[in-house]
Amino acid sequence: MSTASGINVAIIGVGLVGSSVISQLTSVSTLSSRLHIVALQNSKKTLLSTASSPLSFSSSSDWKALLSNSPTSALALPDLVLELQKITKDTGRHTAVVDNTSDEKVAAFYPEFLRAGLSVVTPNKKAFSGPIELYNAIVERKSNDKAGSSGPLVYQESTVGAGLPIISTLNDLVGTGDQITKIEGVFSGTLSYIFNEFSTPTGGNKKFSEIVKFAKENGYTEPHPNDDLSGSDVARKLAILSRLIPELKQALPKGYLSVPTHSLTPAPLADVASGEEYVERLPEFDADYHGLNKEAFDQGCVLRYVGVIDVQKGEIKASLETYDKAHPFASSLSGSDNIVAFHTKRYSQRPLLVQGAGAGAEVTAMGVVADLTKIAERRG
Amino acid sequence: MSTASGINVAIIGVGLVGSSVISQLTSVSTLSSRLHIVALQNSKKTLLSTASSPLSFSSSSDWKALLSNSPTSALALPDLVLELQKITKDTGRHTAVVDNTSDEKVAAFYPEFLRAGLSVVTPNKKAFSGPIELYNAIVERKSNDKAGSSGPLVYQESTVGAGLPIISTLNDLVGTGDQITKIEGVFSGTLSYIFNEFSTPTGGNKKFSEIVKFAKENGYTEPHPNDDLSGSDVARKLAILSRLIPELKQALPKGYLSVPTHSLTPAPLADVASGEEYVERLPEFDADYHGLNKEAFDQGCVLRYVGVIDVQKGEIKASLETYDKAHPFASSLSGSDNIVAFHTKRYSQRPLLVQGAGAGAEVTAMGVVADLTKIAERRG
Lengths: 380, 380
Description:
Binding site for NADPH (chains A, B): 101, 125
CATH topology of the largest domain in chain A: Dihydrodipicolinate Reductase, domain 2
Strand order of the largest sheet of chain A: 3-2-1-4-5-6
Number of domains of chain A: 2
EC number (chains A, B): 1.1.1.3
Oligomer: homodimer
Cofactor (chains A, B): a metal cation
Keywords (chains A, B): Amino-acid biosynthesis, Methionine biosynthesis, NADP, Oxidoreductase, Threonine biosynthesis
Binding site for NADP(+) (chains A, B): 13-18
């Protein structure tokens, strides 16, 4: 075992997810011996490990003080790369950058991280669901599938379903030669919660607007509920998954904006800038939502907001659909859980299903840390 | 990229699963360039790749003829190891042994494979569910968690749930510091089928013995149904999973035989040697099975044969349990699917669920091939 074993980890973004990542890395001894935190950066400050003063966190309180007291203002990303290359050289260890932000600018910089030999792990959906040019630049520069290479790797498990094994399962299916026929799922925890409350096998007796109001007040939605109800988060996840399916190469969305997406926001509210006003006016449309729900119920069905990738039809869409009361999306789903059904040539009679919490700092961090472990296994 | 990139694969056992493994390895170009088959062995013959005549399979018909026409009788395992070490040296590539048998003698040899530097991938449950001494010898010699090592690796995804992400999910949960509180699941495809038919949310109107008879006649059971109804297959899977949970270290079963297991075989039939006689006499006990089912139904429940690992109670058992009609094991399960619920500190409100076909040659082979890919990523 080399003294330089393991890898370095540079963490950009130390909010809820970033804090959980640090907490997991420092509290599990099998991780702290293999994954060495060498940099922390938030919007204000950067904290770097140096030979004379290596970072060594033992508790969660430590690093927050160290970062805010750091004399170094937040480095521009090209400067951060130079510092990380220096650390890579000094330590003799491979370095991975963890992007815990949801920042487009950080995402746009992934090709440069990779060009500099730095691996990338992230729950940030922007790079994988945005412009296809950025995505292609990342795919070109990553070495995940290059046998015998020691180049940089990219892992993105937490971009869909947080810690749930969704990306890895899709990659294993595709990588072993299975053919995906359809992926269908409830990909938004917020919309899962709303429809699990609104449209139940026994009908449901709550008003749509009241469920949204409660969800907003309890932090289940973004500050502006339209950010969830527009379906764009689901569209992003569909863009991410569809790009991992080789058969879709010709039909790939140029970005999540080209995924046909059914917005649940009533047209008259589309331009309401304030989340509060949005929630206040939503009751005007309760009759419409109720009508949809009743129509589904009369057919023995429930409403679910789903993402569908139908490979055979070449169709990708985020939309409100009806499911029979006995369907797992109706009968088995509850709370704000995600559920994903992989229909494939091998899993043809019944799909492979993965279900569970698809959001939250700890489970998102788990996906990130598991990805880092995989990089340590390959480059440590 | 080195010319020696990728790894060598030596395949022991070329029945249904082995044939599917070979088919996947040879038909997917991204696999055939990284996973090089260098040996095939069944109970009669061994076929080895040599420098002058390297194996190169392009179709599934090829290798069967080549193997049966091979002049080499099946090698004893120590001799196979010597040949594989020679091939490893000649090719400059790491070598993994795939054991597709269910043979205890092959399983008992894993420590020797590892000692010789050969990785092991297998759907064979014997080594991981058998005597704890054998298991410990394997754990000691594998390098999976040793940073910076280039030693041999062990992967066993297909030992539970075939290609379903069960072992990998458990390893990721544990590896990132989550605490498993309970694992509960339907682990036997055969018993899943039997109880999904027998005990439905609406009661079920089929006789237990008739379902077993139909299942036997259609190949859903082992030739002797007691091999499924005894619960020992479930006990093996529980032994395998429990050994991956650090908190259970003190309460670990010495082997699957020490897992408390409720046999569904009526005591008077326990010693019936013939599967045919067993099925013929089973109707004598239909009233008993019916009584259990009715009792469950009267409580709004169904019967499911499950495996439970309750970490908090330190209890591991394979048994017939009742589940509310709305529980995913009742409402969402169908056919011969497996379903596994991981209850953890992070997934505490609702479990992480994985569901799908848990048996069959193609999905079992998929788990094997995905494991081989992981070894190629780390040692290729």
